[in-house]
Amino acid sequence: DASNASRTLLYDITRLEWSDELCGMFGLPASVLPEVRASSGDYGVTAAGAACGAGVPITGIAGDQHAALFGQAAFAPGDAKNTYGTGSFVLMNVGESLPDPTEGMLSTVAWQLPGRMLGSDSHTVTHYALEGAIFSTGSAVGWLRDGLGIIDDPAECGPLAESVEGTEGVVFVPAFTGLGSPWWDPRARGTLLGITRGTTRAHIARAVVEAMVHQTRDVVDAMSDASGTRAAELRVDGGAAAMDILCQLQADQLGIEVARASVGETTALGAAYLAGLGVGLWSDAAEVSATWSADRRFKPSGDREALDAEHGMWLRAVKRSLDWAPA
User: Fold this and answer.
1) How many other β-carbons are positioned within 10 Å of the β-carbon of residue 207?
2) DSSP string of 52-113?
3) How confident is the model at residue 229, as a pLDDT?
């Protein structure tokens, strides 16, 4: 049915096997598809001529954002992370039960591991995740430099945004190529509202930073509604996470602590964690979690009513950006 189809792209993540129905629709015999194995295990060794040398064990495998979730040691239901790159990718661990399909969210297998690695008596444990894709984060900072010329280097964005106490009513929706989660509108277009004669480049820079924050809140709120679990904290990484103002405003809007990882390359770290588990460097996820640390934690502050009013203004601006480009 439509519910199951929305969870499937040849591989049925509910049944954890290739979908005979969809393979049949595309005329693709399941026998030609690769074997699906756990995220950590013995996959073989590198061959002669490999850059790393021959005989190196291959013991971990994951997609980039799944690896980043693992690298953030997000092993319990409700654990969530955001990677602020060119775009942003928010993932939340929702545990061993896949929630019903949710408009604007992607459902995915976070990882599949031997039960002993997750403190379970089960032979194999599968954790699912909800994923939200935000199209524009770092690209909006790039637009400040390349499009408007109001900064010379992306590193200037944070200090410039911090030089004013607020945007003075300026709201920016960075829908350069449409909007991703939870809106999924390819026809949305960028919107800059609330400009007055008093608007400065600092107000616009702050509006760009606040757009990252509000987009992330939209996704996290949608995930919490879909899973019935509220994130206890948000672990963050990626280039834009270096901005203290971004992390603090994110904590304020979400009303939860934001923890910036001490290792910024969490995708590579997650792959290393999976490989290390595979060769016995760590025995289980609890030992892996003990190696994770935060560079800095940002505690939420500010008046809740005022913060929600700011988010409400953002949502009004989003509505004006939707369905703008011609079909």
Assistant:
1) 28
2) T-TT-B--B---HHHHHHHHTT--STT-EEEEESSSEEEEEEEETSPPPP-TT-EEEEEEEE
3) 87
Summarize the confidence of residues 305-323 as an average pLDDT: 97
Q: What is the pTM of this model?
A: 0.91
Residues of 168-205 as b/e, b for ≥16 C-beta within 10 angstroms? bebbbbbbeebbbbbbebeebbbbbbeeeeebeebbbb
Contact (CB, 8 A) for 79 and 94: no
Mean pLDDT along residues 169-195: 97
DSSP 195: -
Given a cut of 60, whether residue 87 has pLDDT beyond it is: yes
The answer to whether residue 4 scores a pLDDT higher than 50 is no
- Tokens 């509505």 correspond to 319
**3-state DSSP assignment of residue 269:** helix
Task: Tell me the pairing of strands 88-95 and 106-114.
Answer: unpaired
pLDDT in tens, 225-244: 988 889 999 999 999 999 99
DSSP secondary structure letter of residue 137: S
Give, in degrees to the nearest 5, the angle at Cα 218 between 127 and 302: 110
Q: How far apart are CA 250 and CA 255, in angstroms?
A: 8
